[in-house]
Hydrogenase expression/formation protein HypE (Pseudonocardia autotrophica), 370 residues
Amino acid sequence: MSNTVHDYLTSGPTFAEGEVIARIEAFRKRRPRLRDTIVTLAHGAGGKSSAALVDAVFIEAFRNPVLDARGDGGIVTLPGGERMAFSTDSFVVQPLRFPGGSIGHLAVHGTVNDLAMSGAIPSWISAAFVLEEGFPIDELKEIVADMAAAAAAADVQIVTGDTKVVPRGAADGVFITTAGVGVIPAGRRLSADAVREGDRLILSGPMGDHGMAVMLARGDLAIEADIRSDTAAVSGQVESLLAAAPSTRWLRDPTRGGVGTVCNELAQATGLGVVLDEERLPVRPMVNGACEMLGIDPLYVANEGRFLAVVAPEETDAALDALLADAAGEEAAIIGTIVAEPAATVVLRTGFGGTRIVDMLVGDPLPRIC
């Protein structure tokens, strides 16, 4: 136990066991605090440092009811009562092309998927490019062609954009920022507030493919494995899921920080516990082997074509069947249950019958993966 936690739990008078447990739970519910004085790579990893930066700098400055919901997209109500989701994301991955995809694919899929997680039907996207002086035009054309193909497959249009050029060495080739808009069908509401004890947690496919594909593509490691990124638009799968399980509570795509970090965000947002079943977690053998060699837990590896869904117990079978019927969801699985205790905590039930706490990602084990 770190000195910070130890000091917090043991300061003051001696506590009975129940009081110590209560203090532990209270400590775990506290959102990370920003203590850094400079930005580090960890602030972009999607874990504790990212949450602290967003809370202390951006949420604090821009606070409003839409932003405070902390969803993958902002949900706004138009004057006529129609609800719309609006999302934006930037992509700085290296290498720009990797097995299974490219920065162009990610730029479209990332924004389309954020809109889908809000319950919206993605419709329109903007694209802004920051280009480094000296970047090959032919390579730029290939990236743009990937974006066009991804947009057509996701049935969205790229309707506006911007281009900036910076001096050589200032942008690492190309950075892309996309924003998207989608309309939320009437009556559809997805929120952590709707999650209830006894609900089931479903993962739409194997985890960790994208992060490990990008990591190995860099060539810095003496590891060879046939791992391809899972980058894909999930909006079609989401619509199939919602048709089969209309009472679906909540959706989120586990990108930076992976499944483990997103489950912690869910636990903190609901105040409920998440119990994961290790033996049900879908991980491809090659991904699992590469993670073991690198000392990385697959729970924290990024995905770009998967999503988590919390569904009502009575709709679990229908939801899973809907995902399994799709080629992209052939390895979808029920991976956990929402429980009252331990509150605001994620616990993994291991294959040996024990349990361990799954905390939010700390540090940045896989930089520049999206």
